[in-house]
Structure formats: structure tokens, C-alpha cells
Automatic annotation (TrEMBL):
It comes from Arachidicoccus soli. Residues 5-48 form the Polymerase nucleotidyl transferase domain. This is Polymerase nucleotidyl transferase domain-containing protein. InterPro entries: NT_sf, Polymerase_NTP_transf_dom. Gene3D superfamilies: Beta Polymerase, domain 2. GO terms for molecular function: nucleotidyltransferase activity.
Length: 64
């Protein structure tokens, strides 16, 4: 069970035309300011094949 001090892990698919390091970092800083806690953004392409099933089992879709 996450606590109030835990970070927020987000699995995000970026639009290929919008995918850049600057957009990645800008979104990360924006979400940290908005949520008031550390945010870790994970792209589906960077998931480890051993950890992937555990992450996807806990994932909740919030927007398409």
C-alpha cells in the first residue's frame, strides 16, 4: 500500500511527434509540482521483460 511519502510511477506513451528529452523532463517537473511528490515516468519501451507483468498488473489507465 503506497504511503503519503511514496513517489508516483507513471507509465506514459508519448506521441512520436512529441517525444523528446525536453518534453519528457518538462512533463516530469510539471507533474512533480502538481502532485507535490517525486514522479518517475516510465516509457513502455523501457520496461524490463521480467518486471513488465508486475507493473502492468498494477497499472490503471487514466487517459487515452
Amino acid at each position: 500500500m503506497p504511503d503519503a511519502e511514496s513517489d508516483v510511477d507513471l507509465l506514459i506513451n508519448f506521441d512520436p511527434e512529441q517525444k523528446s528529452y525536453d518534453n519528457f523532463m518538462e512533463l516530469s517537473f510539471f507533474l512533480e509540482d502538481l502532485l507535490g511528490r517525486k514522479v518517475e515516468i516510465i516509457r513502455p519501451q523501457s520496461l524490463n521483460k521480467y518486471i513488465d507483468p508486475h507493473i502492468l498488473n498494477q497499472a490503471e489507465t487514466v487517459a487515452h
